[in-house]
Amino acid sequence: MEEKEATRDFNERCAQCSEVNWGLTDGGRFYCRSCHNVTEKITEVENTDFTSNIRIQTVSKGLRKQEKTDGGCEWYVCEGFQFVLRKQAEALEALGVCPQMKDEVLWNFWRCYLQKTKQAYCDRPAGETVRPLSVCDSSTDVDSDPERLSLLYSSLSESEGDLQTDCSFVSSTSKVSESTSVRSRSGSVDGSLYLMKNPKEKLRMTMPMTLSFCYMALLWVRETMTLSELLRFVFEGHIPYLNVFQHFPEKMKLRGPDIKIFCVESWPSYEEVFNKMHELAAFLDLPRFPDITDSCFLHPDMLCMKYLMEANLPDEMHNWTCRVVKKTCIGEVDFLTLVPGNKSTRKVKYDVLAAAVIVVTTFCVLLISFTCSQPKMCMFYSDGPYFELKKWYKVLKCTLDVEQKKLDERRAKYLWRCEKPLFYSAKKKSKVLKRRQIVVNLQNQFGRLSGSVQPAEKPNPSSFQLSWSEENTDGSCFHGHSLKGILQEKRGLLTAMNPRYWLCTLKLCNEKLCGHLAHYGEADFPQSYHFVLRLFSFLLRIEPSYIHDEVCMIEHKLFNKKLRKKTKYKTGPRK
Amino acid sequence: DGLVRGNFVECTVINLLQASELCLSFIQDAMLQKQWKRAAEFLTFYVESLEKDFSREPVGASEIIWRIGSEILRHHPDSSVKEFNTFIEPMKTLSVKRYLKVCLEHAFYLLHNGLIDEAYQNLSLAESWRFGEQTVIQDKELKLIQAYMGLLDYYKWSKQKNILLEDGKCFYLSVEQEMHSCFRKAAVNLKEIIKIPGVWDQFVKCYVDMLEFYGDHNEARQVLNEYAYNPKFPANPNAHVYLYQFLKRHGESKKSLISVLKILHDIVPSHELMIDFNTMLQKSKKRKRRRLGLEVIFTALDYAGCKENVKAWSCLARQVKQIHLAWIKQEWNSRKDWWPAFHFSHYLAKKNWQENESLSYEKALVAGILLGRGNTKFSFLFTT
């Protein structure tokens, strides 16, 4: 029902501010737009034009009666996700992300999504007060609600032409609501319907997609956080994901289908979040994203610098990575910037790309070869120590093994249990509670027997997982080391000692067909290559095969001309 | 330095199942290295899986937790019987299909810690458990529970018997009555279990002991015969040993004793009873038996177990001095290639002489006959 229509006939002056400027709350009460004073007057649904509307009203009225005994209210699945997004955005802000991302970008994306998926046309007679369930700051709440209402009503009017289908949708909703209200007292109104929907249709919202939204917003504002970092923060618990539904407001109770929707039992994969993000961007008809220029954090030059530091490689290598970036044109604005819906350009994984650049540079410039003769003594010249591959390998391998073990232990110890036990049905409630009690008792008993073990603490959020300090006297930091030992001067220019390079693969696969550009098989590559991939696999928390894909892609760009000449470049095992 | 660590690929996506398996592998590693505190630490996280364990997998989380938890509590320095008891009770209720098994293992634990009465209480509680179809399915466990109760009843009986015998002529009616009731209870259960084909050495011994005490020799003999000769039962040398010992105790004829020991000779030629067997056969008037005796003692000495057995060698020595040369030749034929190295080497000769003179003497006698006096290996013995 049009708000203006409803309030048109109400000309009383506001008790507080004496204005005549009325709006409608969610619950259908009149409130004064000037001073936000809520009155006792309630609108009556007399309008019979929208028969569908009446149906919703009667259904929801019926439900409301039942729900009062439970203490819960009606809520829709999309509201649940909205809550999740809000929490995630708040966490990101706490990590240092600009507020603009949360207040403007993410909220707009979400609103756009709701519009596109037509989820915002079911009326929702919630509580009497104006509930601030929006992503915005609370100061804009009152404004946003009429906005939201008008959004709801506008989409209703938009779909006038499709009234038939909308009616059928609504009637099926009511059927489901009635049946669910019989089985499960509360829970979301459209939970079971939500699960019944064809998942491919209209990009149904899932928990991993909340991270896609976050990442999309981060990318839009060009924040200094890559997708792998985002996912790592999720794993470390700095960004709510796994048990966030536990913090739903009291009134939003979860039952049955809601648990399946909101309670996930696995960490999201990079690929999943990444691909969904692109689908989403296309679905929302977003324009070209803000440019990724060479001053952006996500530009390969910048990311390479960061990863070189983390991988404890000499700073001098940065010159070489920049050269590779330049030669392969992967630093171009058009290559890096996201244009949603453009199927011809390759979707860029900024972090993996930078890692791959370093891998290629390492093999190109340093030519990791452990059989290659290198001076055993560390050569010190007046300008500092020379970089030695073997020494680097020893230090890194040691550190990596320790860190990997710590990570594995943390994974093994992750407490999946949520504080409030979940019941799929009332029948299972007692069984679940009994088990819960047993689990708690066992944990107490064996906890005592664990000795004085400190509980696993959440690591502080940090951009760097490995850090190396030049102040360490044990010489384990290689940042300042010079590449002079490996490169040689030739006519005033530094070049690699061995100018040959062994390609990973001669021909690239079709990614769309088989999912990968190239195939990473253990037997095909030497241990040195495996190790470097393993290192970045750990840092980015991504499967080595994805890094390998990017490496192959870069190699092909780099040696494009030579490949086309089809000279004596061999494939096969590197030295 | 492979990509696969243990049985876990460095996977970046982790779900609950994978996390549980990873956790389990840490527990197993810790247990293998006897790091009980560390194992306990990881177990506190693994028990989370219980809440999700409504699956029908063959070995589910609840069984794993029961077994691992028990093992940790058995070895952990800070553990106690009280801790174990607290732990095991919910384990019993977690799975109805395992109820009796857990009870039985609990009883074993208590017995291991010397708490006989508690074990008995647990067993009798378990014995009275009824759960519809499950009671039928878990029939074997139930029988075992009853069998062990029988064993514990025997133990009680045995203690009382000692009280009775200690005081000699004194007549304690109450003790006797109690003893008899223990006997009845034990007999019922023990008789049942030894019907089932299997190895029930301890149960058989106890049952027979009681039967003998009350003079029911027929029943005892029947039980032992069944145990030794029923083809459904697995071949068990002990069964024959028990039977032999029983028959000997009751002064049975040489014929029956010999027939039992013959079977034992076939199953375990190196058994220590073979020496007695040989002694018995040597004395016999029948040629066949004396011939058998020679075979028995030679065969016994084919095995390393009897190598330094003085009695065995003296038996052999005694026989070869008197017996027909033809028979000796028959036995020696298959042995002449390897017995010298096995028994009569230079090294062994010196060793035996240094360690055990009587052994050396007997062996020398045998060697002299078997290898001929011209043999130089033991010649030095004859010169001393």
TrEMBL record, chain A:
Organism lineage reads as: Eukaryota, Metazoa, Chordata, Craniata, Vertebrata
Keyword rRNA processing part of the UniProt annotation: no
Q: Where would you find this protein in the cell?
A: Nucleus, Nucleolus
One Pfam family here: Rrn7_cyclin_C
Identify the InterPro entries for this entry: Rrn7_cyclin_C, TAF1B/Rrn7, TF_Rrn7_Zf
Which terms are listed as keywords in the entry? DNA-binding, Membrane, Metal-binding, Nucleus, Transcription, Transcription regulation, Transmembrane, Transmembrane helix, Zinc, Zinc-finger
> Single Gene Ontology BP term?
nucleolar large rRNA transcription by RNA polymerase I
Question: Domain named RRN7-type: which ranges?
Answer: 9-40
Q: Which protein, by its recorded name, is this?
A: TATA box-binding protein-associated factor RNA polymerase I subunit B
From TrEMBL, chain B:
Record-level GO cellular component terms? RNA polymerase I transcription regulator complex
Q: Which Pfam families match?
A: TAF1_subA
What top-level branch of life does the organism fall under?
Eukaryota
Please name the InterPro entries in this protein's record. Answer: SL1/TIF-IB_Component, TAF1A
GO BP terms: namely: transcription by RNA polymerase I
Protein name, entry field: TATA-box binding protein associated factor, RNA polymerase I subunit A
Protein source organism: Strix occidentalis caurina (northern spotted owl)
